[in-house]
Amino acid sequence: MTLRQYLTSKSFFKQLLLAFGIIIVLVFLILQWLSYATDHGNEITVPDLRKLTEQQAEEKLDELNLGYVLLDTVDYNKDFPKYTVVQQDPLPGAKVKDGRKIYIKVNSADFGMVTIPDLIEKTLRQAEPSLVALGLEIGKKTYKPYLGKDMVLEMYADGKKLKPGDKVKKASKIDLVLGDGKVGFEEETDSIKNTDTETAE
């Protein structure tokens, strides 16, 4: 029998079908083994732990056979109760394997303290970003006669006058007293008036 005759014979097609059958069975068995080895289909949905205390989060994770690791406390966030979870990894809704550890960060009890920088006789344009960068808020702005317009003359927090180096809580409102830039002009005008009067006399 020639090769050409063999390739077109029933015997060859039977063996070819048998080979395909064996390959399909092997692929199926391999996929089943992989599914079993990776525990496919038995994933756990990560719960939302935000705003839960560490103990509440631990109890919730224990029910799902998940663990947790407390990484750190974060700067106080007023949108979350103190000592509650602020951040978690993996995020809520993620799929994880049995026994996976969830990494959490907990809210501090209160705002941290920051040091007031020396902003006296700095312009408002310079002072404002410096205060915001420290986590402070700009409060009331009042003006009083001073040659430099929008120049910081005094700073207050809760009615108390601040000096460079004082410490205040983050997120505090800092009230600013600024120069109105009118003193120089008024003095110059008064001087001209006085000169005119003297000349007339």
TrEMBL record:
The keyword Membrane applies. Residues 41-108 form the PASTA domain. InterPro entries: PASTA_dom (IPR005543). The keyword tRNA-binding does not apply. It comes from the Bacteria. Gene3D superfamilies: 3.30.10.20. The chain crosses the membrane at residues 12-34. This is PASTA domain-containing protein. Keywords: Membrane, Transmembrane, Transmembrane helix. Signal peptide: none annotated. It holds the Pfam family PASTA.
